[in-house]
C-alpha cells in the first residue's frame, strides 16, 4: 500500500513538473519600429529591466512607416519565426493591414500608437482615448465656437466625437486638416479668426507635427494673449512651449505620465543613465510614447508570467506557418495569450493599466495642464468616473504680474524726437542710459511700478511695422513689448494687442451740419458744374449753326412760292406744280399752240 502511494505521488509530481517544464523559458516577441525611433530605444531599455523567467527575446524588424508592403513583409517574417506576440507602431496607411493579419492569424499586437475603433480583440491598445477628456475640457471653458486642426493619422476618431457633441450642443466647429494645409491657407485661417475676433483653437496631431505647427504660430505672431490653444496630445511636458509662453498665449493640454510619482521619476532617471552604444540618436527625455512602450513590455512580461503560473501550454512546436496561406491558418494558442494580455492589471509609467474586452485602456486618469508664466502647471484631471475635476491653485489672470520678476524683457522702440532720442554723450554710456525722451521715462516708470527688468532696443530696420502684401509677413518692431509713438490702425489692431494710447494729439474731423434753404430759380443748375452747363449751351449753338449751313447749301431744302396779283399765296403743293411747269417752258408752248389757232 505504501509502495502504491509512493508510485502515485511520484507520477503526479512528474506530471506537474512536466507541465511546468513544457512552458518555454524564452519567449520570442516581435518588434515593428521605425528606423532610429525613440520607441525602439525605450523598447531595448525596457527589455533590460524585465529579465524574469520567462525571458522576453526580441525579434525586431525596422520598417518604414507608411509603406504597407514593408510592414507586410516584416509581419510575415516574424510570424514565420514563431513569435508569441508583437509590439510596434502603425500609421494610417498600415493599420488596416495589421488588423487584418492579427485577426486572421490570432497574433496579438501590442501598440502605443493612436487608438482606433476596431472589433479586433487581438489588438491591445496602450494609449488611452482622449475624446471624452477633450470634450470635458471644452465644456469647462465654455467654448461654443472654435477651430479644430487635426491630422488624418490620429485625429479622425477624436474629431468625430467632437462633431457629434457639437451637433447636440449647437457648437460651431471649423475643422482644418493640417496635412493638406499650405503656408497661405494656414495664414488665411488665422486672418479669418482675427477678423471675427476669435482665438479658440484645438490642435490634434502627433508630437512631431505639432511641434512644426507651433513653430508656425510663433512665426506668424499668433501666440498673443488673445489666443487660447488646447493641445489634444497626451505629452504636454514633451513639447517645447518656451516661445509660446513669451507671447502670453493661453495653452492647455493633457499629460499622461505623472513625473511626480517616485516610481516614475526613478525609471526616468534610469533611462537617462541607460548606456545605449548602438543608438545614433541624441539622448532625450522619456516621452509619453516611450513610456507607453515601456508599459507595453511590462504588460507582455506580466501576461506570460501569469500563463506560466497557470501552466498553460503555449508552445509553438510546429505552429510556425505562412501568414499568406489561403485559407489562413490561425494559431491555436493565440486566444490564450490574448486573454492573458487583456486580464493584466498593473500600475505603470502611464498610471493604472487595465483593458476592456475590446483591448482598449479603461480606468485611466489624464492630467490637465496649463502653461503658467512660470511654466506648466497641473490645473485638473479627468477620469471615467469623476469626469473633469479642477484642482488648480493657479488661475490665469489672477495675478498678471506673476513671474515677471525673473525675466529681462526686450522693449523695442524707434528713434523719434521728442519721444526717444540719443543723449549727446551716448558713446560713453551703455544700456538704457544712452537714451532719453518721453517714452524712455514712461518705460522706466512702468517697470518700476510692475517690478521687472527690461532692455531698450532700437528697431533694426527703422520701421514702425507694415505687412508685406506678397508674403503677408510683418516687418518693423519685434520684441516682447513695443513702446513707441505708433498710430493704432485697423490692420495693426488685428495682429497686435494695443494698450490705451499714452498720448492724444487732438486731431479730429469736424463736419458742419447742412442748413435748409429754399430752392432758387436756377436751382435746377446745381446738379452740374458751371463749366458743364456752358459746354452744353455752346454745343447747342454750334450744332444749330452747322445744321443751318447744311440746309442752306442743300437744294432739297428750298421751295419757290409764286403770288398772284391780288390773290392769296399758293399752297405748297400748288407751288410745286407751278414750279414744275416753269421748269419746261418750251414744251408747254408747243402743247398750247394748236388751241390758240
TrEMBL record:
Q: Which UniProt keywords apply?
A: Cell membrane, Glycoprotein, Ion channel, Ion transport, Ligand-gated ion channel, Membrane, Postsynaptic cell membrane, Receptor, Signal, Synapse, Transmembrane, Transmembrane helix, Transport
Q: Which GO terms describe its molecular function?
A: transmitter-gated monoatomic ion channel activity
Q: How does it sit in the membrane?
A: Multi-pass membrane protein
- Keyword field contains Oxidoreductase: no
Boundaries of every Ionotropic glutamate receptor C-terminal domain copy: 408-586
Q: Which GO terms describe its biological process?
A: cell surface receptor signaling pathway
Regions of biased composition (Polar residues) lie at 570-579
Ionotropic glutamate receptor L-glutamate and glycine-binding domain residues: 418-483
Cross-referenced Gene3D superfamilies, in alphabetical order? 1.10.287.70, 3.40.50.2300, Periplasmic binding protein-like II
Annotated transmembrane regions: 528-550
Cellular component terms, GO, for this chain's entry? postsynaptic membrane
Stretches the record annotates as Disordered: 561-597
List locations, semicolon-separated: Postsynaptic cell membrane
From which residue to which does the signal peptide run? Answer: 1-22
UniProt name for this protein: Glutamate receptor 1
Record organism: Collichthys lucidus
